[in-house]
């Protein structure tokens, strides 16, 4: 039977896209309508789940199929075209009811929608209240609006439905699912914008209808389900990157479509620059996956087309100005409320979290850090007030921050005779440290040494607190880690990288453990991973194994941990490739800084955490008694026994898995330290030296201490006594090492920051490339030769590529030949070599207390002093200085290509580490003040002829 002229004709267009979970229920709901539609068109969008394979219709219902990948709007357009039309002469009012496969309506939904449009003829679009498909008592979407800048906002979302919003019916837009739209309006406006395939298509269509003079309303009595937002319709999963791109691209497209011709070009020009700024904002907000979506959206809108067609369609149908819909738009105050609502949930979770196991202020944390600070002042008192340090593995830093960064990355390095290649990753760490105290870069090294003890205590306290429950146990762990021989040994021998690694290892442990929870922790772990690896390259195997284990254990959140080694890789890849190319890949593990001879400790000494074979200074203390070889090994083993017993005993408690993991890490640290004592890749004078084992022993110490504290934490009664005994024994074992500066056994010493003499420094002010040939007599009768530029070699100049070279370069051989002939009487003419190498000074170092060294020193002093081409400047704090009176050439500073490569590499480092640093900045939710949910304007917008509704 055909409907009468006064009866609206409704054609339901049901779009199905792999909707097997919902389609049957939606079809049944359509059949159960108290006011059924006159026609039904089911549009299958390339379903592959068999949901429509057995469907068959007759009469006014039909099934039509289109290719997969078509949007909801395209499917509706296709369904409208194949749906029967009423006879134009009978005046039937035709409507389209847009239904998704998950929009199961209640029996009275269509009747309620038609009732709303019948009493208000100006309403051309009506939408139901969408509720959650799994929880119908919760509103999924109820009305849409947008800000004045085009950001779309769902007016009511994820709220318990108590009828609190039912009086607000006049809205700017409604969702596509369940929308009832006048067919003539649909065709007149051209349906959904093809440039908005998913997000905001219904909102844009509603806005165009409003500007064409029609009303848009929501009908609270009409209800339909929704399984998710429109971007998830027909998709198994939508990544965060794609979701961000969809929403942002829709917003930008509408912004350009709605803007006036006068400001359109401004919006277009700012698309990409604003996208870059918002990408940084996503990093700060811990949404790195959104960065790619943000940029892709900007480029797609800027160069993808579609805006011109949309603007023509809008202009052709527009009858009213934007002021007419102004009351229905949302202010930024409401947007802010919408954002902060989600933060309240997180804040409640944080506030309801269990109370911390130990308080830093109330449970002794602050006192152990202050005690460590006092220990630092007493132990390192000679360093207080010093502007720089030298000796061991240390030299002062360059006095200019720009020079620090020029030594970072791939480029020209003036060390020795000069070379082009990658710097050590540690150069970047040194540059950052020097930049912190930019007025005196070397001061940062002094501060690191002075603060190493309290910072180590703080980090160990936090790490142990994470794995224990008793409030006083972290204090035990902090003391044990602070007095670890690896730390005091690294400080007194000037191994700056090892000191930094020791201080940061507990924080790396904490951030890596927490990386699965947040991007801030994951990015913090990435930064710490890079700094620790750069400071102590010998730890690379341990760090990589630890990362792989964390990745495997937390595989559900692997997307956060998987990027942890990326910043370290950016630093290390050039050096690794360079060492592989020269056939010396193991040299990657060489210690950064000044090469210093390190005696190898025994396996037993390594087992009790000692990086040097002096038994923590006890060897010289008991040497007069003649008991060192017999008593010391036994005594040190006994002193280490309480901590070792606690660590091993921890596997017998209920936290055996965590303790066992710590012991495995300790074994890895010990194996790495043992391997370091057998790896000789760095040249020191005429010999080679082992890799510093103290860095690996820091890993060993931290792991053993964590296991021991777990053991102490689980002992019922004897815990306090066991912890106290272990701590006292550990302090006794290492006590003499803390007196190294007072016993004159420390390798480092304070200095003014000047490397060469004042005379050379004055010359370097005018000629920064002036060369100084440094000749050092050795105890075996040989000479060690070095070439220093400007004011002398600095710590940031040092390179393991130079220290681990397997053979001399041609210029290096020439330098050695020059030094050998200058140090003895011969017929060799040094002028060509001095000129080509740019050498203006020769510095003959003082000889050590050795007969052969003094003999070679005297011979060299006589040969150079009697050469008429040299003028003796006199004795300096470093040795005898001579000036060459001939002309010398200026040295190369690298090609233009090398300089460009250096700048490009610094940019890459800046981008990678800048992004990681932004992500690592913690963000905290803020509680918002209670505000009303009432819309800003209760009155309907005057975008229609009110007389039509009377």
UniProtKB/TrEMBL annotation:
Transmembrane intervals: 256-276, 288-308, 365-385, 445-464, 476-505, 525-550, 562-581, 630-651, 658-678, 690-712, 719-743, 903-921
Annotated region described as Disordered, given as residue ranges: 929-950
Biased composition (Acidic residues): 936-950
Keywords, alphabetical: Membrane, Transmembrane, Transmembrane helix
Superkingdom of the source species: Bacteria
Gene3D superfamilies hit by this protein: Spore Coat Polysaccharide Biosynthesis Protein SpsA, Chain A
Name used for this protein in its record: Glycosyltransferase family 2 protein
Keyword Cell inner membrane set for record: no
């Amino acid at each position: 039977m055909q409907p009468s002229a006064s009866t609206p004709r409704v054609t339901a267009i049901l779009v199905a896209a792999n909707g097997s979970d919902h389609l049957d229920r939606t079809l049944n709901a359509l059949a159960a309508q108290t006011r059924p539609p006159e026609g039904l068109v089911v549009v299958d969008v390339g379903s592959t789940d068999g949901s429509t394979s057995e469907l068959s219709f007759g009469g006014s219902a039909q099934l039509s199929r289109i290719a997969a990948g078509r949007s909801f709007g395209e499917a509706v357009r296709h369904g409208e075209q194949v749906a029967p039309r009423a006879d134009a002469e009978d005046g039937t009012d035709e409507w389209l009811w847009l239904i998704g496969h998950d929009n199961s309506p209640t029996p009275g939904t269509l009747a309620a929608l038609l009732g709303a449009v019948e009493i208000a003829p100006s309403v051309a679009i009506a939408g139901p209240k969408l509720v959650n498909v799994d929880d119908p008592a919760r509103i999924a979407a109820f009305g849409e609006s947008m800000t004045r800048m085009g950001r779309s906002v769902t007016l009511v979302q994820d709220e318990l439905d108590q009828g609190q919003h039912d009086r607000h019916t006049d809205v700017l837009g409604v969702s596509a699912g369940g929308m009832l739209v006048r067919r003539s309006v649909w065709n007149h406006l051209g349906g959904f914008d093809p440039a908005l395939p998913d997000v905001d298509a219904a909102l844009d269509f509603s806005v165009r209808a409003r500007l064409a003079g029609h009303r848009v309303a929501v009908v609270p009595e009409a209800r339909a389900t929704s399984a998710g937002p429109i971007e998830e319709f027909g998709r198994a999963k939508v990544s965060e990157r794609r979701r961000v791109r969809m929403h942002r691209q829709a917003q930008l497209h509408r912004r350009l479509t709605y803007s006036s011709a006068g400001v359109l070009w401004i919006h277009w020009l700012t698309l990409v620059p604003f996208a870059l700024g918002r990408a940084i904002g996503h990093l700060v907000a811990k949404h790195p996956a959104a960065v790619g979506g943000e940029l892709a959206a900007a480029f797609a809108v800027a160069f993808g087309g579609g805006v011109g067609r949309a603007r023509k369609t809008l202009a052709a149908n527009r009858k009213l100005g934007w002021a007419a819909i102004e009351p229905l738009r949302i202010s930024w105050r409401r947007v802010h409320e919408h954002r902060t609502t989600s933060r309240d949930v997180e804040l409640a979770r944080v506030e309801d979290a269990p109370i911390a196991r130990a308080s830093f202020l109330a449970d002794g944390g602050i006192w152990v850090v202050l005690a460590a600070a006092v220990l630092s002042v007493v132990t390192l008192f000679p360093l207080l007030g010093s502007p720089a340090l030298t000796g061991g593995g240390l030299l002062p830093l360059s006095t200019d921050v720009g020079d620090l960064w020029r030594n970072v990355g791939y480029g020209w390095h003036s060390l020795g005779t000069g070379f082009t290649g990658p710097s050590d990753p540690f150069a970047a760490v040194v540059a950052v440290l020097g930049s912190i105290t930019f007025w005196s870069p070397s001061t940062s090294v002094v501060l690191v040494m002075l603060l190493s003890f309290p910072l180590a205590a703080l980090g160990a306290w936090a790490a142990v607190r994470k794995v224990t429950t008793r409030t006083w146990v972290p204090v035990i762990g902090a003391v044990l880690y602070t007095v670890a021989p690896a730390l005091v040994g690294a400080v007194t021998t000037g191994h700056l990288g090892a000191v930094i690694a020791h201080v940061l290892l507990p924080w790396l442990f904490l951030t890596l453990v927490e990386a699965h929870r947040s991007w801030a922790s994951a990015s913090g772990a990435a930064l710490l991973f890079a700094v620790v690896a750069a400071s102590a390259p010998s730890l690379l195997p341990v760090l990589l194994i630890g990362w792989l284990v964390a990745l495997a254990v937390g595989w559900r959140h692997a997307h956060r941990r998987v990027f942890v080694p990326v910043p370290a890789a950016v630093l290390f890849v050039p050096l690794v490739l360079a060492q592989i190319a020269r056939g010396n890949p193991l040299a990657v593990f060489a210690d950064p800084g000044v090469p210093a001879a390190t005696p190898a400790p025994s396996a037993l000494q390594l087992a009790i955490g000692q990086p040097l074979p002096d038994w923590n200074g006890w060897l010289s203390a008991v040497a007069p008694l003649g008991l060192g070889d017999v008593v010391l090994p036994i005594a040190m083993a006994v002193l280490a026994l309480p901590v070792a017993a606690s660590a091993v005993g921890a596997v017998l408690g209920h936290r055996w898995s965590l303790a066992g993991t710590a012991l495995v890490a300790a074994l890895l640290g010990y194996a790495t330290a043992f391997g370091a004592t057998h790896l000789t890749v760095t040249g020191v004078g005429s010999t080679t030296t082992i890799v510093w084992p103290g860095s690996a022993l820091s890993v060993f110490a931290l792991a053993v201490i964590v296991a021991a504290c777990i053991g102490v934490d689980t002992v019922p009664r004897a815990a306090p006594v066991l912890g106290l005994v272990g701590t006292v024994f550990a302090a006794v074992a290492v006590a003499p090492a803390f007196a190294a500066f007072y016993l004159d056994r420390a390798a480092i010493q304070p200095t003014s920051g000047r490397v060469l003499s004042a005379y050379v420094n004055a010359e370097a002010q005018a000629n920064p490339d002036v060369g100084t040939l440094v000749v050092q007599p050795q105890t075996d009768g040989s000479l060690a030769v070095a070439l220093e530029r400007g004011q002398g070699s600095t710590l940031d100049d040092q390179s393991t590529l130079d220290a681990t070279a397997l053979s001399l370069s041609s210029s290096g051989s020439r330098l050695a030949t020059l030094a050998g002939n200058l140090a003895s009487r011969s017929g060799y003419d040094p002028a060509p070599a001095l000129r080509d190498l740019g050498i203006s000074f020769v510095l003959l170092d003082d000889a050590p207390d050795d007969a052969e060294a003094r003999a070679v020193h005297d011979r060299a002093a006589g040969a150079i002093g009697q050469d008429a081409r040299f003028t003796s400047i006199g004795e300096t704090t470093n040795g005898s200085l001579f000036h060459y009176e001939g002309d010398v050439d200026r040295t190369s500073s690298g090609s233009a290509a090398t300089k460009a490569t250096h700048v490009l590499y610094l940019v890459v480092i800046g981008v990678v580490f800048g992004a990681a640093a932004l992500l690592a900045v913690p963000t905290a939710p803020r509680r918002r003040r209670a505000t009303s949910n009432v819309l800003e304007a209760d009155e309907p917008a005057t975008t229609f002829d009110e007389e039509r509704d009377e």
